[in-house]
Design a protein that fits this description.
With 411 residues, the chain is α/β, with parallel strands linked by helices. Helices cover 36% and strands 14% of the residues. Helix 3 packs parallel to helix 9 and helix 10 packs parallel to helix 12. The longest helix is centred in the C-terminal third of the chain and has 27 residues. It starts with 15 loop residues before the first helix and ends with a helix. Bound molecules: D-malate.
Length: 411
């Protein structure tokens, strides 16, 4: 009989969001008339913008004609899309890249997991706590860890607590590591790193021979002018960082699927024999073997995000979600609930009222206010006592949710 990958058995419970879904569906089955407001998983609620839809439709129409039909595309994505991304998203911030350094994919969740393929299992990994659960779980799945302890920390992984005391900015790892995950703007805490803080990380990585996995999936939600959108805005980052980006939240592509990973040519690792080798070459080898690229119409749609018209439309929606974030943050703060984030990210990280545990607050919020959020402890032990609300939602729902929370816990 075939052996299973036992590493999966080390994982605790189910993946966070399906577990939330299960509890919500149990509640709605028992209470069919309850008007439940979902601010849990960060899933967009606005449809694709007109410019993107038009390009998407055009792409589909081209597939209907033998003269313009597209079969397999390049596994790395079409050059024209990579060039548009470089010109519109990187060059204006002073970052020069080659199209061969930009790999188009079906999303940054997949890429930030699949990237582990090209790193030796012996590498020591540091992740934030709390953190986007994918980083932790995928390292457990590939066998980089032992079992979890009572608190939920896996043996062999290095955790960097992000607490109110350190402003939710991870401190440098307590021991020598080879890979450091940074998510900025942060999921779940909604906090960001300044240029100085990011420069300190780049300097640290260069000095300590470590590579940074920089997840910038929420960069489009940054509102403060001096916050970096890309780690490559920092000198030296091309020698020590891989960057992940996504069209999901930026342009409503959670159901369409498109993202990208940047691996600069300068980024090198070592072979078993100690020779230097390019991670860009390895990723190219991995993608061309295991991935057949993103569909042509989706890439057409993604390119339209960066047309003048498309960007103006997309920006309007981002602003709409960020106004939701302001309403949640200011509403709950006025009610005496401590809130963090929500200024440069679509997530508000709040301290549970009365020191309730994250899951107790989840259950109370669902059962008594009919509002769904995400328990902070689901993102890691240091998230206990905290809770995440997403700003993705319709205005009326967001206002109603805030009012219900105020009525229940407001001072
Ligand atoms: C979240 O709610 O944290 C995100 O939607 C999850 C994701 O992007 O995969």
């Amino acid at each position: 009989m075939a052996r299973i990958n036992d590493n999966y058995l080390k994982l605790q419970a189910g993946y966070l969001f399906p577990e939330i879904g299960r509890r919500v569906s149990e509640f709605t089955t028992a209470n069919p008339d309850a008007k439940v407001i979902r601010l849990g998983i960060g899933d967009v609620t606005k449809p694709l913008v007109p410019a993107v839809l038009e390009a998407f439709h055009q792409g589909v129409d081209e597939m209907a004609d033998a003269a313009t039909f597209h079969g397999y595309g390049p596994e790395q994505g079409y050059d024209w899309l990579a060039q548009i991304i470089i010109d519109k998203a990187y060059k204006p911030r002073g970052v020069e890249l080659k199209t061969t350094e930009v790999f188009i994919s079906d999303g940054s969740k997949c890429d930030s997991s699949n990237i582990l393929d090209i790193f030796d299992l012996g590498n020591k990994v540091a992740i934030g706590d709390p953190v986007y659960p994918v980083y932790n779980d995928t390292n457990v799945m590939v066998g980089r860890s032992g079992n979890a302890d009572d608190k939920g920390y896996y043996e062999g992984l290095v955790y960097m607590p992000c607490t109110e005391e350190n402003g939710f900015n991870p401190e440098f790892p307590a021991e020598k590591v080879d890979i450091i995950y940074l998510c900025c703007p942060n999921n779940p805490t909604g906090t960001v790193a300044t240029k100085e803080q990011l420069k300190a990380w780049v300097d640290y990585a260069l000095t300590n021979d470590a590579i940074i996995f920089f997840d910038a999936a929420y960069e489009a939600f940054i509102t403060e002018a001096d916050i970096p959108h890309s780690i490559y805005e920092i000198d030296g980052a091309k020698e020590c960082a891989i960057e992940f980006r996504s069209f999901s939240k930026t342009a409503g592509f959670t159901g369409v699927r498109c993202g990208l990973t940047v691996i600069p040519e300068e980024l090198l690792g070592t072979t078993e024999k100690g020779e230097k080798y390019s991670f860009n070459k390895l990723w190219n080898r991995r993608q061309t073997t295991k991935f057949n690229g993103v569909s042509y119409p989706v890439q057409k749609a993604a390119a339209a995000v960066y047309s003048d018209e498309g960007w103006a439309q997309v920006k309007e929606i981002i602003d709409f979600y960020m106004e939701n974030a302001r309403i949640i943050r200011e509403g709950l703060t006025a009610a005496g609930i401590a809130c963090f984030g929500g200024v440069n990210a679509p997530y508000i990280w709040l301290k549970t009222p009365g020191g309730m545990s994250s899951w107790d607050f989840f259950d109370k919020l669902l059962n008594e206010c009919f509002v769904v959020g995400t328990p902070g402890s689901g993102f890691g032990p240091s998230g206990e006592g905290y809770f995440r609300l997403s700003a993705f939602g319709e205005r009326e729902n967001v206002e109603t949710a805030v009012q219900r929370i105020k009525d229940k816990w407001g001072k």
